[in-house]
Amino acid sequence: MAYVVKAFSLKKINLAPESTVEEVLQNVAMIISTPKFSVPLDRGFGLAQRFIDKPIQSAQPILISEVLDAIEEYEPRAEVENVDFMLGDRPGALIPIVEVNIIDG
Questions:
Q1: Angstrom distance (rounded) from CA 45 to CA 33
Q2: Cβ atoms 98, 80 nearer than 8 A
Q3: What are the phi and psi torsion angles at 85 (to 5°)?
Q4: Strand order in 2-6's β-sheet?
Q5: What pLDDT, on a 0 to 100 scale, did the predictor assign at position 105?
Q6: Which domains does the chain have, with CATH numbers?
Q7: Contacts by 14-20 with C-beta closer than 8 Å and gap 24+?
Q8: What Cα–Cα distance (Å) separates residue 79 from each residue in 19, 38, 47, 89, 98?
Q9: Is residue 21 helix, strand or coil?
Q10: Nearest C-alpha neighbor of 57 from the set 99, 97, 94, 32
């Protein structure tokens, strides 16, 4: 079953998720919402910001690559099926929307 996760959709962190699905989806939301180098004890966590100040057509493939790499590294229980985007409130702002499957194991 595929689940859709949107960046910046997480309003509060649940420290005791009731299911593996909830935990994985929360983790994916945190990964795609966090800029790399912004977490003090894990500077590699999140997305590198190489796509900033690029035209949208150039930024999208860079951001897709960063999303795939970050999720593969930090949440191996999630398998990315699709990465899409919506435009943010500010001109040129891309918000990633990721479709994932949960890997049982």
A1: 10
A2: yes
A3: -135, 155
A4: 2-6, 94-102, 78-87
A5: 59
A6: 2-102 (3.10.450.40)
A7: 20/77, 20/102
A8: 17, 25, 17, 29, 10
A9: helix
A10: 94
Beta-carbon contacts of residue 44 (< 8 Å; ≥ 6 apart)? 36, 73
- Integer Cα distance of 15 and 76 in angstroms: 19
What is the β-pairing status of strands 78-87 and 2-6? Answer: unpaired
Give pLDDT tens digits for 49-88. 988 888 889 999 999 999 999 999 999 999 999 999 988 7
HSE on the CB side for 26, CA within 13 Å? 13
What 3-state DSSP class applies to 46?
Answer: coil
Give me the percent of the chain exceeding a pLDDT of 70.
Answer: 99
Average pLDDT score over the chain: 92
Give the H/E segment covering residue 81: strand 78-87
